[in-house]
């Protein structure tokens, strides 16, 4: 837009492929497209005048909306830690200031919460992936979750439940192990340790699963 030239929004058209985006025409010519949230916030309606200063505000708002929308899509596919979202936005090449603003907005709107994320991740890995607390702890550390959040999530684990899943996994693994009884026990313990279970949980699980099974095999 030229300085001193009065510019008026002459048309607003909803995009056919993306119903939440609109094409804005100024002085009968296409000027830019915006998300509907930006459209409403800045009153980009037909007949409204728009100068260069206001246009720059709209452009910056649209940039913020783009980063936010990308983050929401990323989170929508799977729960993410704050570090994971930040890294993803940086990989897309967004400016640091825009990334920081987006992260704060997502936190305020409760879309990202490392405390809740740690709880959900721990429960899923224990119950559906048959992983032990040591494995989960290492994963959460890699995802940038603060130690206090990790400790809180681990502390909330029910030890009996964790033991039950360890026993279930051990019972499934035991028939495939070869060797003398003591050798089978050693291999089973090593297997459970690699899955992230603590030594005390492994000891209990091996004892419960092998005592009856190995006695039957020996007979």
Automatic annotation (TrEMBL):
Residues 68-106 form the RecX first three-helical domain. Its main location: cytoplasm. Pfam families: RecX_HTH1 (PF21982), RecX_HTH2 (PF02631), RecX_HTH3 (PF21981). Belongs to the RecX family. The keyword ATP-binding does not apply. One of its GO terms (biological process) is regulation of DNA repair. This is Regulatory protein RecX. Residues 113-154 form the RecX second three-helical domain. Modulates RecA activity. Residues 160-206 form the RecX third three-helical domain. Keywords: Cytoplasm. It is found in: Cytoplasm. One of its GO terms (cellular component) is cytoplasm. InterPro entries: RecX_HTH_1st, RecX_HTH_2nd, RecX_HTH_3rd, Regulatory_RecX, WH-like_DNA-bd_sf. The gene is recX.
């Amino acid at each position: 837009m030229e300085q001193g030239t009065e510019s008026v929004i002459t048309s607003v058209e909803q995009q056919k492929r993306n119903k939440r985006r609109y094409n804005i025409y100024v002085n009968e010519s296409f000027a830019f497209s915006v998300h509907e949230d930006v459209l409403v916030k800045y009153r980009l309606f037909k007949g409204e005048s728009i100068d260069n200063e206001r246009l720059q505000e709209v452009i910056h708002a649209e940039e913020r909306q783009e980063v936010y929308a990308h983050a929401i899509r990323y989170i929508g596919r799977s729960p993410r830690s704050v570090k994971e979202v930040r890294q993803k936005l940086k990989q897309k090449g967004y400016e640091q200031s825009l990334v920081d603003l987006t992260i704060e907005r997502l936190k305020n709107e409760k879309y990202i919460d490392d405390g809740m994320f740690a709880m959900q991740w721990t429960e899923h890995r224990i119950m559906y992936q048959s992983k032990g607390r040591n494995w989960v702890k290492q994963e959460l550390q890699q995802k940038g979750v603060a130690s206090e959040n990790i400790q809180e999530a681990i502390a909330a684990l029910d030890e009996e439940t964790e033991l039950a899943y360890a026993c279930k996994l051990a019972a499934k693994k035991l028939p495939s192990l070869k060797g003398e009884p003591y050798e089978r026990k050693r291999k089973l313990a090593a297997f459970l340790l690699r899955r992230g279970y603590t030594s005390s949980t492994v000891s209990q699980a091996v004892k419960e699963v092998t005592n009856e099974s190995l006695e039957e095999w020996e007979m």
